[in-house]
Amino acid sequence: MRPSLLFDLLDREYEASAAGRHVPVMLWGPPGVGKSEIVHALAARHSVPVVDLRLSQLEPTDLRGIPFREGERVDWSIPAMLPDAHRHGPRGVLFLDEINAAPPTVTAAAYQLILDRRLGDYRVPTGWAIFAAGNRQGDRGVTYAMPAPLANRFTHYEVEAHLEDWIAWAHDADLAPSLIAFLRFRPELLFDFDPSRNPLAFPSPRTWFYADRALAKFRDAPALLIEGLAACVGRAAAAELVAFLDHMEHLPDVEAIVRGDPQPVPEAIDLQYGIAPALVRRARRARQSPDAMHIAGNILRYAAQFPQREMGVMLVTDLQRAYDRPLIDIPEFIAWADGVSHLVRPSPGREDAPGREAVTGREEAPPAPPPVERIPWRVRTRSRN
User: Fold this and answer.
1) Model pTM?
2) What averages of pLDDT result for each successive group of 10 residues across the chain (385 residues)?
């Protein structure tokens, strides 16, 4: 399931906790696809705390608490790590990350917590959602087979890496436009993990975030850059990225394009992939300025010049995500849409507005960009895989 849909699903599960209709959710997926990030992003949206409970670090008795004598009876002290309405707040998320890395004796102690939202006299506060996450058994992680009684206490979803969702997140997180351009150019490298080879460093949404940090630290030191990137995403992917970055020196002038000055569209397909996120990032920085729609109009005029219309659709789709108002209100949109009307289907009953969904977020994705030509540097670096 793509992360954006899963985020919406978890958002509804969280809202349902206040009404008593919440069901615990288990997220499955390979390492680095963003399982934990989705949960923390959801909590950040609602400004509520996350209690991250790692059962793999606990003993079975840790969840119940320490017994103490109270008169003629023995009572149990409630562990401070469990959600408490007075200390943590009335709403929040109890996150059982890496739950299947815990031995079955520990997870068995959590059965009552997950299903009944209680442990002895302790109660999970109403308004708190329970989410869990873990790697699959084939991912070469430290995992145990999930016992059937535990599995039956969750609803189960599998998280998959999704390029469009990652790019939207990368723009929001202010990752380097050149890195976004590279993964547009080589989308299969967003996630490339072969458990049978057991690599130490491999491309994943998480390690591309690390690669962005390596770019910021080592860009001015080529010898360090290749090693720093290889430590994040593996040597083959790092070599391709460095060669791509070297080619990006021939990009058109982004500032001239947003001013409306004439600028040629690059002939090389990798440079077309490169200029698109650079323009989107420039538009994002200006979206609250008085010139925001003027800049968007100039970018739309430039998008209409792409010889491969699919590339223009990709650019305008990402541009729409950068704005909080529809691009269809800009006069330059109509001229651009007329040129791509054969690529997208109109809205039902809106045959006069070709291409509208592709840039307003009402379709899943733009048409696929054209096949990438085998330019010499790419053939050379791919041979190293």
Assistant:
1) 0.78
2) 96 94 95 95 97 89 81 84 94 95 88 91 93 88 86 96 94 93 94 85 96 96 96 95 90 92 90 91 88 92 89 90 82 86 54 43 48 39 37
